[in-house]
Design goal:
Layout (H helix, E strand, L loop, with lengths): L20 E6 L2 E6 L20 H17 L5 E6 L11 H4 L1
Parallel strand pairs: 2-3
Antiparallel strand pairs: 1-2
């Protein structure tokens, strides 16, 4: 019999614990800034380079958008930008896909 280790993903996040996103508000405009922490991968030792994307980044982004939607009804536009110089997002972290 082969034993498997189940690793659980915590989908509960709050703005005070975001590792990868910053949000600011200016009246009806919300600015969401992607600034992925290279050492903030979902699993220990899993690096995220050039704003690469993993499930942890996605969980936070979903939380950001839901909070804007339900906690800031005054927002009419969302600007999504990057804090990295000359890079927005390199896409999915292909090393994790293997």
């Amino acid at each position: 019999m082969i034993e498997t280790k189940t690793e659980f993903v915590d989908y509960q996040v709050d703005p005070g614990r975001y590792k990868h996103w910053r949000v600011s508000f200016d009246g009806p405009v919300a600015t969401v800034t992607m600034d992925v922490s290279e050492d903030g991968g979902l699993r220990p030792g899993y690096r995220l380079k050039l704003n690469s994307y993993d499930l942890g980044v996605d969980i936070e982004f979903h939380d950001v958008l839901q909070r804007i939607r339900f906690e800031h009804p005054e927002v009419r536009s969302v600007v999504i930008t990057s804090a990295k110089n000359r890079v927005f997002c390199s896409g999915a972290n292909i090393y994790r896909l293997g």
